[in-house]
UniProtKB/TrEMBL annotation:
It comes from Noviherbaspirillum aridicola. InterPro entries: TolC-like. The keyword Transmembrane applies. The keyword DNA repair does not apply. Its main location: membrane. Keywords: Cell outer membrane, Membrane, Transmembrane, Transmembrane beta strand. PANTHER family: OUTER MEMBRANE PROTEIN TOLC. The lineage of its organism: Bacteria, Pseudomonadati, Pseudomonadota, Betaproteobacteria, Burkholderiales. It is found in: Cell outer membrane. It comes from the Bacteria. This is Outer membrane protein TolC.
Length: 490
């Protein structure tokens, strides 16, 4: 590729990636951020295309069950006449008749035929069933990708909110720390303080400055991460609006058995394993079908321009029974392989079920711990904010030094940052628990839905989550002891 071709291709891709993306107007809410990610995120579009390809494979595979209808037209030519001899069937002597010509040297042949194989029909039927299950697998993978995307958006949104609230204050405190450092070095040069006291003063300022610069570096990329997830230009000026509602703990008040039931019915990983097991069982049927003889039917309409033919138009029909004798040798091993595939799929499904049950308990515990850590961090941030307000008043009265102002501001900033970090972890834990339960916003076609409509659906979904409104799950009952004994005897 030339440099110009590469440049043009990159420009075309960038224009296509931003096509039909509505610009952000006003402050960006959490609901709108999730809706924009669901509608415009490029990785989500790729997942949707994978599902569309799986559906098209299923749709195209259904035609393999139909008979094959073939139209042919051909032309033949030879440089010499097709001359034939004959001999007497009784004596075996050559016939006294002269050699005869029964075909023209050049002729055109037309053929329209239909062929249908019962064996191919059966294999195509089970192949279509497998493709239908693969469509469902693609849908479950799309759901899982949606859960991860919502989790990333919620975390990036709150990081952007913390950057929006803290960056200006961090910049002002860094400037104040720089001024304090200049004053300390000037006092050291003029020997206004003892060398040890002056160096300790500088070290404290530098330590606070290091913490502030690390905080500023962490906050700098938050806005870019959110812009990438919602597929907006990275130069977009973005302002987020923090939700007024606090994190809800109602989901933690529900019995864990209720959460298990929901996860058993809606978890994307577990549902995918069920579809894989169905594909493995259909594969055993396909292998078993190949062990039977093949029965084919054909019917042809033919026409030839050969003038030696008495009947230029004719029809042909036939039936063929075929059997590959090597299947007698390979059949048992193929069946064992197919049965092993079924056993593996069942084992993976059982493993996934146990893993999902564990994930429910772990995600619930992580969410409870994250809520607790957030509440503690919020309390600490509140105390530090009050202390900082008192020290700021003292600074205005010139009662305290610049070092004390820098230290107090740094402490308050770090406390507020830890509060936002705890909030990010709490929202990440909430999204992880939602993904484990298999809960996501429910909508039909996203292409036919406006951004405002999708935002409303996301808002209702978040409200349902805060109110702990869970869908119906699958009740899992433990087998009775008598059944276990009977199965053991049998």
């Amino acid at each position: 590729m030339s440099k110009q071709e590469l440049t043009d291709g990159l420009a075309t891709d960038r224009k296509a990636a931003r096509a039909n993306v509505e610009p952000v107007t006003g402050k960006l809410t959490l609901e709108e951020a999730i809706a924009r990610a669901l509608k415009y995120n490029l990785e989500r579009r790729s997942r949707m295309m994978e599902e569309a390809i799986a559906f098209n494979q299923f749709d195209a595979g259904r035609y393999d069950m139909l008979p094959k209808v073939v139209a042919q037209a051909g032309y033949r030519w030879r440089d010499e006449e097709l001359v034939s001899r004959s001999k007497d069937s009784v004596t075996g002597l050559p016939s006294l008749a002269n050699p005869f010509i029964s075909s023209e040297r050049a002729a055109t042949v037309y053929d329209l035929g239909m062929t249908w194989s019962l064996l191919d029909f059966g294999a195509s039927y089970y192949g279509a069933r497998q493709n239908a299950n693969r469509v469902q697998i693609a849908a479950e993978r799309r759901r899982k990708a949606m859960h991860l995307l919502i989790q990333d958006v919620r975390a990036a949104f709150w990081r952007a909110a913390s950057a929006q609230r803290l960056q200006q204050r961090v910049a002002e405190t860094i400037k104040l720390a720089g001024d304090a450092l200049v004053d300390a070095r000037k006092a050291e040069a003029e020997q206004m303080r003892s060398p040890v006291e002056s160096l300790r003063y500088q070290r404290q300022v530098l330590e606070n400055l290091r913490l502030l610069e690390a905080t500023n570096q962490e906050l700098a990329t938050a806005r870019l991460e959110l812009l990438h997830l919602i597929n907006m230009p990275l130069t977009t000026r973005l302002e987020v609006e923090e939700p007024s509602e606090a994190l809800s703990t109602r989901i933690l008040e529900l019995p864990v058995e209720r959460l298990e039931d929901v996860a058993m019915g809606l978890n994307a990983d577990l549902r995918e394993q069920f579809y894989n097991a169905r594909i493995a069982r259909d594969e055993t049927r396909r292998v078993l079908l190949r062990l039977f003889p093949g029965v084919s039917f054909n019917y042809n309409l033919k026409y030839s321009t050969d003038s030696y033919l008495v009947n230029e138009h004719w029809q042909e029909a036939g039936a063929i029974i075929s059997f590959n004798l090597m299947n007698l040798l390979s059949g048992p091993s193929q069946m064992r392989l197919a049965d092993a595939g079924v056993s593996l799929a069942d084992q993976r499904r059982m493993t996934a079920q146990m893993a999902v049950l564990t994930q429910v308990h772990v995600a619930r515990l992580q969410y409870a711990n994250a809520i607790e850590q957030y509440q503690r961090a919020e309390a600490v941030a509140g105390v530090d904010a009050k202390l900082d307000d008192i020290m700021a008043k003292r600074a205005r009265l010139e009662v305290q030094s610049k070092l004390e102002s820098v230290a107090n501001n740094t402490t308050a900033i770090l406390s507020l940052q830890r509060r936002y970090q705890s909030l990010v972890q709490a929202h990440t834990a909430a999204s992880r628990l939602q993904a484990t339960l298999g809960m996501e916003p429910e909508f039909d076609s996203m292409d036919d839905m406006s951004l405002s409509q999708l935002t409303s659906i996301v808002a209702r979904a978040l409200k349902s989550w805060n109110q702990a409104e869970l869908p119906d799950g699958v009740r899992i009952e433990e087998p009775r002891q008598e059944q276990n004994k009977n199965s053991g005897r049998s």
